[in-house]
Structure prediction request, 546 residues.
Amino acid sequence: MIKSFNKNMRILSTSAVLALSVAFAPQVFAATPADTLVEGFAIDDIISLDPGEAFELSAAEVTGNSYSKLVTINIDDTSKVIGDLADSWTISDDGMTYTFKLKSGLKFASGNSITAADVAFSFERAVKLDKSPAFLLTQFGLTGDNVTEKAKASDDATFVLTVDKAYAPSFVLNVLTSTVASVIDKKLIEEKAKAVTPTDDYKYETDFGNEFLKTGYAGSGPYKILGWKANEAVILEANTNYYGEAPKLKRVVYRHMKESSGQRLALENGDIDVARNLEPGDMEAVSKKEGLSVTSAPKGTVYYFSLNQKNENLKKPEVIEAFKYLVDYDAIGETLIKGIGEIHQTFLPKGQLGALDENPYKLDVAKAKELLAKAGLADGFTVTMDVRNTQPVTGIAESVQQTLAQAGIKLEIIPGDGKQTLTKYRARTHDIYIGQWGSDYFDPNSNAETFTINYDNSDEGKNKTLAWRNAWDVPELTKETQSALLEKDNAKRAAIYEDLQKKVLESGPFVVIFQQTEVAGYSAKLKGFKLGPSFDTNFVFPISKD
Prediction:
């Protein structure tokens, strides 16, 4: 199989490559072809590759390399937004109308021309699909009823977006760099859309191509998606219709590999070009190996665990505070996240406007016991934690399990893959969830909104933020977070976010542990490999091989 894989990757047609992906077997490798980049990567968090639905870090990386947006972040200066499909834009005097002029001669991978009608359709379908990331657009006042008027094409080259308030322009533009704002091929999707009977999942008589786009493709980015097989592989192929810098390699394969040791071995053997989930020990070993290199980049991603406020024990203020004293931050920092992160206890990552660098909590079992006694739980209690079975979250969960036990709390770890744990978390049926949150766009509201806004705490709530997922009902924090969006003065806006972080740090059901530094080991034969400031800016099109 190894020999045939190596040969076939060079000559197979698209359909055959997709068929081959089905045959991938865990820990079976082949030397990587000269025209193909192969990355070992834990991609079990992917639920869908539809930009209107995808809301996971691995999916963001795939769509970031395969879909275009009106605007994108300047990866050399994340405080700036630059045009992607948009050649220019203007903002009305009242701050509520954004008019974008598209570049000329743009095409989708299908060959269909890109027009402002495609942009309008993409906004409409994201809002009407109403999947997890839809709130990023609906926060501008867009609804299923008004989106065709508020997000429309005035001609083939002009897209007009009208928001409901005079938000800080940087906020609006940064939101439009997020995955949900990807531009979709309207003509292709209208051909692929399925008629459906309206239900709670689909309120309209079409699925807007959602079933097709879960594994299909309708974009215009540098690479097109050939296919995805859950927990096995994602395959990308160069888009010959791409309007920007042409990809250097013909194909990119993300191989699902969960274990750091397996990735390291495959990299050392030349079976993969990049290892994406290296633990500290393997990272150090790779850095010393001739022909291999290690790179890193700070990410706007924080790791945390959260306490579901539906649980009668976990919603007690003293219990929430006790948990923050039952984490051995120093030990975690010195071992589990050495070289791949730094202890960070506030929800805004360093580098964003208003981010606080305050870490007031330390392991203090005596203090935690005192708080538990005040809560009437001196003898402790039993609780569960849903844990994606990858590092470092598994190791952190086991560390927390040990320190909780010192205060009489029995923690049962429930392992699962990324899809399983996320699905349960989004249904609010967990006790404790441990995971990571990456900013959807480079504005402090991205994290502030999800940690501090909960518009409707019922199970039927539509804005499924992290506060909502953990049933944390915070009307006052919701109002304060909203006020920051209308503040044009950056210093005053930063002060609002600083106050929000202090309040969440003190009483929120989130135990933020560290901010990620993403690392990767890679073959020295690669040129142009670089990790971006976010997962959707880990671009692969500049990469070539000797």
